[in-house]
Amino acid sequence: MLKNTIFLTVLVLLFSGNFSKAQSIIWLDQLDLSVATQGHGKPGINTSVDGKKMTIAGETFDRGFGTHAESSLLIKLNGKAKHFSAWVGIDDEITGHTPAVEFEIYGDNKKIWSSGVMRLGDKARPVSVSLQGINQLELVVTDGGNGPYYDHANWANARFEAVGVSTFETFNPIASTPYILTPKPAVTPRINSASVYGVRPGSPFLFRIPATGERPMTFSVKNLPKGLAVDTKTGIITGKIAEKGTYEVILSAKNAKGSASKKLRIVCGDKIALTPTMGWNSWNCFGHEVSAEKVKRAADALIKTGLVNHGWNYINIDDSWQYNRDGKDTSFKGKMRDENGYILTNSKFPDMKGLTDYMHSNGLKAGIYSSPGPWTCGGCAGSYGYEKQDAESYAKWGFDYLKYDWCSYGGVIDGLPDNDPNKVPSLAFQGGADLDKGVKPFKVMGDLLKKQSRDIVYNLCQYGMGDVWKWGDDADAQSWRTTNDITDTWASVKSIALAQDKAAPYAKPGNWNDPDMLVVGVVGWGNAHQSRLKPDEQYLHISLWSIFSAPLLIGCDLEKLDDFTINLLTNDEVIAVNQDALGKQGVCQQTIGELKIYVKELEDGGKAVAFANFGREKVNMSYKDFQKLGITEHQTVRDLWRQKNIAKINTSNQSLALEIPAHGVAYYKFTGTK
Ligand code: GLA
């Protein structure tokens, strides 16, 4: 076939005597596929996304583009292509899962072909479309409606019939040069804490005053309630408050260049996490390779990079501190728990108490992870049947935070089969939306955590099943994941961002919707790489997580932070919106084409507004619909990323010039003025 094609092309060339009119075959795999965006892995050139021979329902293909939903490849045809043909389908390399995708083709932004939803085992479907007169082509693979999981998708034997050209240019319209907006912190002190902090009576109190400015710095606190003391060198406040009550204190920091003060309202009562959690989690950079040593180094890096001075203070261990069911750990002696049911740590975590003591001595908090089923998602020992012992262990070890997953609980929702945990797969998700049964395990652990003698922030990780935002508070949780796992792709960030509004009314101090971790910096365990999000996409991601009042958990390797990522994570005005004491979640108030405008009310009466451009074209407009955002009269407009006032306007008759990059954001604060 290939031989024939070359022969024909040569013939056409010879006989036409005019190269510019010559017809040729251009294979998709000959184009630069590296600019494609996709949900996982790298574009496969003549291979599947996992680098294997392309196979669809038993049929193999030598050529093509192996990708993963959500996937997009843009090609400039400039009217020089006549026809496109291919065979599409899901690669057989996926087993034990139920992927679904839809292949779509857009010509000059109009859909010109679609495969319909395809599943694993479906025979390859033929593509044959005329491209007459089309300038720009986009090959898209969507998630088929069930999330972009295991969606290994092949454009097999894909080729163009072209006229007068020998290749086509592929491109990605989103700018890729990083640029820094956050100003460097001043040398004079500035206190960056939230203005409210919650603790339960009798629980250990730990609060490190986050402050930027030259060191050495000395700290003091006025009106500290009885039972608390501040270390003047470190700014770490410790102790215990016996009585419920609200205590207004004044935090102060002083260095050679000046001084600063800030009010803090300490609320000693039932509620904790009065502002969203800020910190780091091990999963997205270390996965199963996490160890106490790496976690300790992350804590050191949080301090060394200065992130701690902006309020980042939780260091959370995710999965794999326990023994895994694969039994590969050399210290594994055949039991995952002791004779009293208390869980054993694997050899990479020899001294949990020592580890949390280290965090606490630096004013940091420590987090841990488990699942209500017999197994965690990664196949480690879960809490099923041992919830009491586990809650006690977390408290005894000194943990301040628990992320509690779902995973294998689907396999025990109707009881443990034959009393044998080994009969339960690690990934059994069924039943989570069933309110009678799906809520129970979270209440069990919530009750137990509340009985411990320390405050343990409780985060549910069941991906939003059964509208968790409606009952998470009743399970005594402080935050809950609203969606499936995030990945460092535009499709993932966009779909998670667009799914947040429905849960927004349930956010309040002590209750937060969690759209999952921040995918910036160097992420990906086993294949560490810079976030695949473009710089503007990262600004949009951080701005939206800020306006959503989302828990902010950094997922990258803190020892590999570059200047751009530090700029994203240290903007105190962007963080202040997230940590605002009113605790409202910003929602989309207006949509103009692909521009979505999110508004969040702030405690000081101001409003944060994120103009988020989800489109591939730059937005250039004169904006005047302020009443739709609930903004009236005279306003000062401040650019939060640049930390600069950019306009004073009368919103009843003046407009604001907006220039927003494709997949980018303008993040402003509006404050009423006279
Ligand atoms: C689930 C969670 C992730 C991570 C892994 C660990 O997938 O959603 O965030 O905790 O489990 O196995």
From TrEMBL:
<dbReference type="GO" id="GO:0005509">
    <property type="term" value="F:calcium ion binding"/>
</dbReference>
<dbReference type="InterPro" id="IPR013785">
    <property type="entry name" value="Aldolase_TIM"/>
</dbReference>
<dbReference type="Pfam" id="PF17801">
    <property type="entry name" value="Melibiase_C"/>
</dbReference>
<keyword id="KW-1015">Disulfide bond</keyword>
<dbReference type="GO" id="GO:0005975">
    <property type="term" value="P:carbohydrate metabolic process"/>
</dbReference>
<comment type="similarity">
    <text>Belongs to the glycosyl hydrolase 27 family.</text>
</comment>
<dbReference type="Pfam" id="PF16499">
    <property type="entry name" value="Melibiase_2"/>
</dbReference>
<keyword id="KW-0378">Hydrolase</keyword>
<dbReference type="InterPro" id="IPR041233">
    <property type="entry name" value="Melibiase_C"/>
</dbReference>
<dbReference type="GO" id="GO:0016020">
    <property type="term" value="C:membrane"/>
</dbReference>
<dbReference type="InterPro" id="IPR038637">
    <property type="entry name" value="NPCBM_sf"/>
</dbReference>
<dbReference type="InterPro" id="IPR013780">
    <property type="entry name" value="Glyco_hydro_b"/>
</dbReference>
<keyword id="KW-0732">Signal</keyword>
<keyword id="KW-0326">Glycosidase</keyword>
<dbReference type="InterPro" id="IPR017853">
    <property type="entry name" value="GH"/>
</dbReference>
<dbReference type="Pfam" id="PF05345">
    <property type="entry name" value="He_PIG"/>
</dbReference>
<dbReference type="Pfam" id="PF08305">
    <property type="entry name" value="NPCBM"/>
</dbReference>
<feature type="domain" description="Glycosyl hydrolase family 98 putative carbohydrate-binding module">
    <location>
        <begin position="22"/>
        <end position="162"/>
    </location>
</feature>
<dbReference type="InterPro" id="IPR008979">
    <property type="entry name" value="Galactose-bd-like_sf"/>
</dbReference>
<protein>
    <recommendedName>
        <fullName>Alpha-galactosidase</fullName>
        <ecNumber>3.2.1.22</ecNumber>
    </recommendedName>
</protein>
<dbReference type="InterPro" id="IPR002241">
    <property type="entry name" value="Glyco_hydro_27"/>
</dbReference>
<dbReference type="InterPro" id="IPR013783">
    <property type="entry name" value="Ig-like_fold"/>
</dbReference>
<dbReference type="InterPro" id="IPR015919">
    <property type="entry name" value="Cadherin-like_sf"/>
</dbReference>
<dbReference type="InterPro" id="IPR013222">
    <property type="entry name" value="Glyco_hyd_98_carb-bd"/>
</dbReference>
<dbReference type="GO" id="GO:0004557">
    <property type="term" value="F:alpha-galactosidase activity"/>
</dbReference>
